[in-house]
Amino acid sequence: MAKTKYTGVYVDKDNQFYYETELGTDRITGKRLRKKSRTDSFGKKFTSAHAAYKELIKIKREYHQVQKYANYHLTYNEFMDRVYIPAYKTDVEESTFSVRKKTLENIRDRFADTPLRSITIEDVQSYRTWLLSDKDSGGAGYAPSYASLVFGMFRKSLDMAVIMQYLEVNISKRVKAIPKGKCNVAYWTKDEFEKVIATICIDDFYEHLCFVMLWMYYMTGIRVNEGAALWWDDVDFRNKRLRVHHMLITRSRSDWDRKNYTKTDDGKRTIVLDDDTLAILKVWKKRQNEIGIHDFIFSYDGLPMIKSTIARIIERYAKFAGIHKIQAKGLRHSHASFLINEFNVSVLVLSKRMGHSSPEITLKHYSHMWSGADESIAKEMSGSIKIQTAPKTNIVFSGNQVIKK
């Protein structure tokens, strides 16, 4: 190994950076606590000595911080409140934390005052069974995909407990993980969407907003928080383009942030708009201007829409139309279904329109929607090959008499 200019950071013969340090003495075992790693908390290898040093400082800071409360009888509840949840908040986007916060608190409350070191394999297995059981049998009643997410978050919390030297091993790893299963998001077909918009009276200003919002989500496939962040500056009427470069983080209608990024780097994109959508937007823009709204497209009073309001709007008009309700993100899936089933759009085109990092991501989520496209191909194949066979055989048999007969 070779030293770098950063104390505690080294580079090995393969030019891989790593840190190595002593944190102190375990108050329980009396052993020296040593920490060495070639990866950060997300499992990514260090690409520079500085990156390894930043992680080393973070580990030391977290270790010394928790020493104020560390003791043999530390409860899971105390660990979550003082260590894990605050650390998780610093590692993810604000929008992610706001979504996951309640889940983390539910996990915390499940084990509550149980000492961290007293959690047993039986406790973990019981929790896993509860997550997968339906409500009639006293379980959580979660879908497999969500149960998998919750159980995975619980296991990660114990991973950190091991890193912080509260535990020697993560006992939850001895219990089988919960498979994600298949998560099919409900969506609306073209006929169903037509039934929905047929129940909206756009003479009413608020209902006009509802119509524009549902139409935009269905016809563009933008994510919910991408749509909520749209300003009129994002619409290029002359070139028929929609710029999707922002996402909205909302805590309430009056407490929000319009972030200059999207869920992923590839989420920043420009979408081509059809003439119907442009015409609908022009009418709505004029109507908003009459009452002094000039920024948010989805607004009736100058303030942005929030997810819960969007969900209620979807539920209301689904009920009016007599069709099944969907989640707000179901409108994004509806757009994908619309393009695939009505226009047999290619994977590459859909991937770019949806803001996916690769066509593989698109196939992962929407491959099942292309099943109907096979029928149209089969119809086009009919009659495309001229069928004409020979009047007599050209084969001269000299051996197998059974075949010859």
UniProtKB/TrEMBL annotation:
PROSITE patterns: TYR_RECOMBINASE. This is Site-specific integrase. The keyword Disulfide bond does not apply. PANTHER family: PHAGE INTEGRASE-RELATED, PROPHAGE INTEGRASE INTD-RELATED. Belongs to the 'phage' integrase family. InterPro entries: DNA_brk_join_enz, Integrase-like_cat_sf, Integrase_catalytic, Integrase_recombinase_N, Integrase_SAM-like_N, Tyrosine_recombinase_XerCD. Keywords: DNA integration, DNA recombination, DNA-binding. Residues 183-382 form the Tyr recombinase domain. It comes from the Bacteria. The lineage of its organism: Bacteria, Bacillati, Bacillota, Bacilli, Lactobacillales. Coiled coil: none annotated.
